[in-house]
């Protein structure tokens, strides 16, 4: 197996999907311990995902989430994403259709030592985060 620093995007996502597919063995006596270990491995795999051009992702602003797409790989630890256009199906139910068309300027994210992607110039603690493992759009109607 390749070292984590040398994985391709496809290989890094394959590792995540393999972990997510795992089912608890029938002879496992301590389900909660097994689940905790699986969750730990899943989080580590998410932190090691390698972005690629065209990858759908999610920008997380506190309770809001915006669907985006990776549009440029600046370096292994710096990428640009652009928001996807969306069509609102039901604002109060939080239902949106994510369209392939992009809109607005690119936003820059940097990968931090803890493995998380954070908006450039912001701290991890209070910053805007980028999730590479899913694409979602949700605007919290309570604000």
Structure explained in plain terms:
The protein is of the alpha+beta class and 143 residues long. It folds into two domains: 4-47, no CATH class; 56-131, no CATH class. Helix content is 21%, strand content 38%. It has two helices and six strands; from the N terminus they run ααββββββ. It has helices at 9-21, 31-47; strands spanning 56-61, 64-75, 78-90, 95-111, 117-119, 129-131. A six-stranded antiparallel β-barrel has the order 1-2-3-4-5-6. A hairpin with a 4-residue loop joins β3 and β4. α1 (9-21) packs antiparallel against α2 (31-47).
How many helical elements?
2
The overall number of domains is 2
Main-sheet strand order equals: 1-2-3-4-5-6
Q: How far do the termini sit from each other?
A: 47 Å
Indicate the radius of gyration in whole angstroms.
Answer: 17 Å
**What form results from the Cα inertia axes?**
globular
Topology:
Elements: H1 9-21, H2 31-47, E1 56-61, E2 64-75, E3 78-90, E4 95-111, E5 117-119, E6 129-131
